Amino acid sequence: MLDRRRRVAHIQYILPGGLRVLWDNLLNDKQYADAIFPGADRPTGRGPEYGNDAVKRILIADDHEVVRSGLRAIVETRSDWVVSGEATNGEQAVALALETRSDIVIVDYSMPLMNGLEVSRRLKLLHPRTAVLILTMHENDELLTEAILAGVRGFLFKSDARKHLIFAIEALLDGRPYFTGVLLEKLLHDYQSNKQNKSDMLLTAREQSVVQLIAEGHTNRSISTVLKLSVKTVETHRASAMRKLGMSSTAELVRYAIRKKLVSL
Known about the structure:
This protein is an alpha/beta fold. The chain folds into three domains: 1-49, no CATH class; 52-190, Rossmann fold (3-Layer(aba) Sandwich), CATH 3.40.50; 198-259, Winged helix-like DNA-binding domain superfamily/Winged helix DNA-binding domain (Arc Repressor Mutant, subunit A, Orthogonal Bundle), CATH 1.10.10.10. Helix content is 47%, strand content 17%. It has twelve helices and eight strands. It has helices at residues 30-36, 65-75, 90-100, 116-126, 141-149, 161-173, 181-193, 198-202, 205-215, 220-227, 231-245, 250-259, and strands spanning 8-14, 20-26, 56-61, 81-87, 104-108, 131-136, 154-157, 178-179. It has a six-stranded parallel beta sheet with strand order 4-3-5-6-7-8, with helices on both faces. It has a two-stranded antiparallel sheet with strand order 1-2. The longest helix is centred in the last third of the chain and has 15 residues, at 231-245. The radius of gyration is 20 Å and the shape is globular. The N and C termini lie far apart (46 Å). Residues 1-52 have low confidence and may be disordered.
């Protein structure tokens, strides 16, 4: 059992592949460090101390480096915020958010392995104090509705990030939701006109994850590894999704996933 009462040093750490993470290094505990980051070269210097709640940790998850760099530049304009990590897929985003105890996770909706909604669902279950802000380039009414149902507290178009990102993060840190005006108008219009596609609501969160991974080209066996399910359970979710959607082929599932922006082309 590790003694977490020891002094903690916080340092910016570059993971293999260029991913950044703010690492809470338990001093003089090489075994602990090796368990977290096996085979990696850790820095020896001390970083800034972030031992109080004044500094907020913000994780950035997007599979495009240029987007991550742009978001980092905006976040780092605030001296009381630190980018706790960068992830290139949804699975990494969840793992790094838990490891760094991030206050906010900014995540692209269309992420490989696990989309932004599933990231939100996982964190809501595993670490409820972490708020999720989803960014998307898709102006889709259904995405906003699904995001709210998944527990997302903030939702922005990528084109609005430069103008609204700071305000969105401030709102989430204050416990308030943040949606740009145009998104609220879309949600209200959708509610009033009742045009939501009912078939989408039939799919469970797990079924949607399976459909996304199928569309990304994963086999049932690789899906079972990613979602930590048995192959038989994956097959059951796959069959259930196809039955609910009235589909009979993998090609139809792929077209559905593309249409619903579960995957990006």
